[in-house]
Specification:
With about 120 residues, the protein is mainly β. The protein has a single domain, classed as Beta Barrel (Lipocalin). Helices cover about 5% and strands about 55% of the residues. Strands 1, 2, 3, 4, 5, 6, 7, 8, 9 and 10 form a 10-stranded antiparallel β-sheet that branches.
């Protein structure tokens, strides 16, 4: 629980808040977008996969705007996607797990987006 802030290669400013009830709200200002600021809210449960790696218990791309803050352009064809994150030393790093359509996720294999958000004090 808490609030994380920062930026991504696609967004100048990101603010992500996770409440105790599982509500995730993000406010993002994308660099090249017709909508200068986007707000997204989604309710999900964070599940610890291993160590400091978590996945969001969600339905595919449902909630991706909130659960993968500052990221656009995700598409799914012949595979499944599950949002996740690494929580380490006050940093929230968005990641995504992918797998074939009828294959379980391997939570030791993920793709990161090469940026992290910092927890507000």
């Amino acid at each position: 629980m808490g609030t994380w802030v920062g930026s991504s290669p696609q967004a100048d400013a990101i603010k992500m808040t996770v409440d105790a009830n599982g509500d995730v709200t993000t406010v993002v200002s994308f660099k090249n977008d017709s909508e200068p600021t986007r707000t997204a809210t989604y309710t999900a449960r964070a599940v610890q996969a291993t160590g400091n790696i978590y996945y969001w218990d969600s339905e595919g791309l449902d909630g991706a705007d909130a659960l993968l803050p500052g990221i656009t352009g995700l598409g799914v064809a012949d595979f499944r996607l599950e949002p996740g994150f690494i929580l380490e030393e006050g940093h929230y790093t968005p990641i995504v797990f992918t797998t074939a359509t009828n294959t379980p996720f391997d939570y030791n294999k993920y793709n990161d987006f090469r940026f992290s958000l910092t927890k507000e004090q």
